[in-house]
Structures
1.
Amino acid sequence: MIPRRSAIRARAIVADAADIRSNVLFFLGMTILSLLLIAGLSNIAFAADSDSDLGDGGKYGGYGVSSEMRQAMVLVENETFANALPFLQREVTNNPSNANAWNLIGFSSRKLGDYSGSEAAYDKALAINPEHKGALQYKGELYLTLGNLAGAEMLLARLNKICSSRCSEARELNDDIAAYKKAQ
């Protein structure tokens, strides 16, 4: 037979263990919930901050992209650049710090032969985000169109510092420069 004092002490120990277990489970659950919340917010930030790719579900897609930007991206993908520009202009009017929109204005303007407008838009994108890979690549392509090989090579060097040859923008600009040199 267990003495009365020992029985009370044993029940207290069991009750304390149950409280500790409840607290551990509560904090573990809160930690998991916090990690899931952080992971979700990171995905939103990644989608909103990325700087190239126009494909379905590409880097411009996702959370925080306006209807103007989504419509412009479809038009750019379909190579209807003149139709995309009004949507992009509305986007930068509403959100002048959207480097992705400025980049697409530069791209569309270049494809339409407006080289000075293109360069100005790329410059705005790069003023907002000096490491905008798409703007660096496309401005390099613009320089090649204008015969400015040294300028294109300078932009390739900047891309290589950011992502070396691991990113498609650096590889594509490098290939364009090689093709340009071969054609000379």
2.
Amino acid sequence: MTKSTSLLLATVIAFGMMATTASADIRKGQKTYLKTCKTCHGNGTKGAAMHTQAEWESLFANGGENIVKQHAGSKAEGFFTGKGFENSAQDLRDFLFEYGNDSGNVPSCG
């Protein structure tokens, strides 16, 4: 195998691994959504479509400050003010952003 072929193969494998990692975050976010948000906001298709991608970005900006405020006094307040949200905020944001109502994407199974 030539050096250029080896380099090309290594590059393809590296990009494939990065794509898998990005998908894993979205899947983790979907699991978090189904576990903590589905009761009030419906399945992932309905919940993610509540906002555009820009609106999800705004809600999750500054450590999720706006989404935390939005859930103050709700059944989910404990999740949003505790370690649960702190540990899963990025994955949840990735899921909701990926399937925002202007994304053209629809989540499967949830």
